[in-house]
Amino acid sequence: MAKTIIFFILIALVIVFVIQNTQIVEFRFLAWKVSMSRALLLLGTFLMGIAVGWLSRRLRKKGA
Question: What is the pTM assigned to this prediction?
Answer without folding.
Answer: 0.59
